[in-house]
Amino acid sequence: SYALCSVSVPSLSIEAEAAGFDLDYETVAYSGKDGLSNSSVNAVAQTNDGYLWVGTYAGLYMYDCIKFDEADIHESIRTVKELFVDSKGRLWIGSNDSGIVCYDPADGSSRLFNTENGLDSDSIRAICEGTELRPEREVLRCIHPAGTCLQQSCI
After folding, report:
1. 145: part of which helix (H) or strand (E)?
2. 87, 88, 112, 143 — which has fewest CB within 10 A?
3. Residues 6+ apart with CB under 8 A from 22
4. Among candidates 35, 31, 1, 32, which has minimal Cα distance to 18?
5. What's the CA gap between 35 and 61, in Å, rounded?
6. How far apart are CA 150 and CA 134, in angstroms?
7. How many angstroms separate the CA atoms of 6 and 30, rounded?
8. Strand, coil or helix: 67
């Protein structure tokens, strides 16, 4: 079965698309009564299990197409600036002030990467995987599966 969701807040509108389906979509505005405590959304991502994840200045929220629930993945997640789902289905959560958390929905595990274990800064502004490098950046931090952070210069 497929669930198609659309999230719309004053500063952001994202609509799901289904290839090969001729469906109409409805835009719905969400607020505190739906469980989203902050209408200032910084990032949205969808994991392979169908959940939508919403990052705000008030934390991380999970949306199941019915309501938003505050996600209790890691105690360091406070102000979420960036979300990214990698090729293994893991959700990477970039914060404004506490580094990056890698969450695996398959087993519920999470791991924090920050200045204490190799990052230059705890303020995360972009997350990518593989060769999706942004040439305007001078330095890229790579987090290897073993958990080590390496600095690489960009071209």
Report:
1. none
2. 87
3. none
4. 1
5. 9
6. 17
7. 10
8. coil
Distance CA 122, CA 138 (A): 17
Alpha helices by DSSP H, listed for 2-121, are none
Classified as helix, coil or strand, 26 is coil
Residues with Cβ < 8 Å from 13, sequence gap 6 or more?
Answer: 6, 7, 27
Q: Which long-range contacts (CB under 8 A, 24 or more apart) does 58-67 make?
A: 60/93, 61/35, 61/36, 61/37, 63/5, 63/7, 65/3, 65/5, 67/34, 67/35
Contact 112, 118 (CB under 8 A): no
Q: What is d(CA 82, CA 80) in angstroms, rounded to the nearest whole number?
A: 6
Dump pLDDT digits (tens) for 10-65: 444 444 454 555 567 777 777 777 777 777 889 999 999 999 999 999 899 999 88
- The predicted model scores a pTM of 0.71
Query: How is residue 115 written in tokens?
Result: 């200045």
Look at the alpha carbons of 35, 38, 40, 46 in this order and tell me if their dihedral is positive or negative: negative
Six-digit token string for 88: 């293994």
Tokens linked to 151: 């600095």
Tokens of residue 68, six digits: 């938003």
